[in-house]
């Protein structure tokens, strides 16, 4: 929840006490870095060790058998998808769904031929803006059904570990974009299995116990729109409610403005091709990538999740 200035002042001593709690949570539950598992445990063991304590880990052999790992070159994707229209997020600076000046700004959602998007990623064509396929509405099944057979549409042992095998409730998303595309710090209510197919994803993570030190402020929502000359305007939605969002860049935090963030301790990890990050619900994440990185994510609503839809405006 975003607080006013007076509430913020009043909460400061409470936050200081909570710093002790966050330190204890870290000492008791988390290691300095995100642990690697090089073999799959049983679903029950995975539930006990990782899901129940809400701890992230990187699993090295979970997706090595997926045909996508060998097949999904940009040339292959071009050949399969051709000029089919797909939704691409376009921003001037690589930040979609992020604070810009006094607004929470969402990307321009452009429907463009996939081959034209690849021309940009492969630098055959230079356009203003940063382009990222990043739509979280099961776009792999919805917009890229030609690719679904190259991945496992459900990971049965994980569904069992998460208790969703009887009632599968997940979104299957496809991500591909430029290295300048960055996902700003946020958290989601669902469990996330983040599978990297090619390239690398760089995650900065905060456990939920760091929440007291992570600032939220209220912003009017807006959307980027590219003009004919290639510049961007910000279209403000005057009728929509303000959105609570994190104004802080965890890679370069303004500690003068947000001094409490000094109590938070991020974990950083790189997830490489063939690896899967188990990103538990409510963990804050900030994500960067190598150029042309391709990923597939399972966003899984469990009994504990409030919603499986992308609930960005949350706090
Ligand atoms: O890969 C990214 O850029 C962001 C991923 C993310 O935020 C998510 O899966 O919830």
Automatic annotation (TrEMBL):
Its EC number is 1.14.11.63. Its cofactor is Fe(2+). It is an enzyme of class 1 (oxidoreductase). Residues 133-315 form the JmjC domain. GO terms for cellular component: cytoplasm; nucleus. InterPro entries: Cupin_8, JmjC_dom, RmlC-like_jellyroll. Keywords: Cytoplasm, Disulfide bond, Hydrolase, Iron, Metal-binding, Nucleus, Oxidoreductase. PROSITE patterns: JMJC. SMART domains: JmjC. It is found in: Cytoplasm; Nucleus. GO terms for molecular function: hydrolase activity; metal ion binding; peptidyl-lysine 3-dioxygenase activity. Signal peptide: none annotated. Its main location: cytoplasm. It comes from the Eukaryota. Homodimer; disulfide-linked. Interacts with DRG1 and DRG2. Bifunctional enzyme that acts both as an endopeptidase and 2-oxoglutarate-dependent monooxygenase. Endopeptidase that cleaves histones N-terminal tails at the carboxyl side of methylated arginine or lysine residues, to generate 'tailless nucleosomes', which may trigger transcription elongation. Preferentially recognizes and cleaves monomethylated and dimethylated arginine residues of histones H2, H3 and H4. After initial cleavage, continues to digest histones tails via its aminopeptidase activity. Additionally, may play a role in protein biosynthesis by modifying the translation machinery. This is Bifunctional peptidase and (3S)-lysyl hydroxylase JMJD7.
């Amino acid at each position: 929840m975003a607080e006013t200035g007076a509430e913020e002042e009043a909460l400061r001593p409470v936050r200081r006490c909570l710093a002790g709690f966050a330190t204890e949570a870290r000492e008791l539950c988390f290691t300095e870095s995100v642990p690697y598992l090089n073999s799959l445990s049983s679903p029950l063991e995975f539930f006990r060790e990782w899901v129940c304590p809400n701890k992230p880990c990187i699993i090295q052999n979970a997706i090595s058998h997926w045909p996508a790992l060998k097949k999904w070159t940009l040339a292959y994707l071009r050949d399969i998808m051709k000029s089919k229209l797909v939704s691409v997020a376009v921003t001037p600076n690589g930040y979609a769904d992020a604070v810009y000046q006094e607004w929470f700004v969402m990307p321009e959602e452009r429907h463009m031929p996939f081959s034209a998007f690849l021309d940009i990623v492969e630098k055959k064509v230079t356009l203003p803006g940063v382009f990222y396929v990043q739509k979280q509405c099961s776009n792999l099944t919805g917009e890229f059904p030609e690719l679904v057979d190259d991945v496992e549409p459900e990971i049965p042992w994980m569904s069992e570990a998460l208790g969703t095998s009887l009632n599968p409730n997940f979104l299957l998303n496809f991500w591909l974009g430029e290295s300048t595309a960055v996902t700003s710090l946020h958290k989601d209510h669902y469990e996330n299995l983040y599978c990297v197919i090619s390239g690398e994803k760089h995650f900065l993570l905060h456990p939920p116990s760091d929440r007291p030190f992570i600032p939220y402020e209220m912003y009017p929502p807006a959307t980027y729109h590219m003009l004919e000359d290639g510049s961007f305007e910000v279209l403000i939605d005057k009728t929509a409610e303000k959105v609570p969002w994190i104004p802080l860049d965890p890679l370069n935090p303004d500690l003068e403005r947000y001094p409490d963030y000094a109590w938070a301790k991020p974990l950083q990890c790189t997830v490489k091709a063939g690896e899967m990050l188990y990103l538990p619900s409510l963990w804050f994440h900030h994500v960067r990538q190598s150029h042309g990185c391709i990923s597939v994510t399972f966003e899984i609503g469990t009994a504990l999740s409030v919603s499986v839809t992308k609930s960005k405006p949350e706090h």
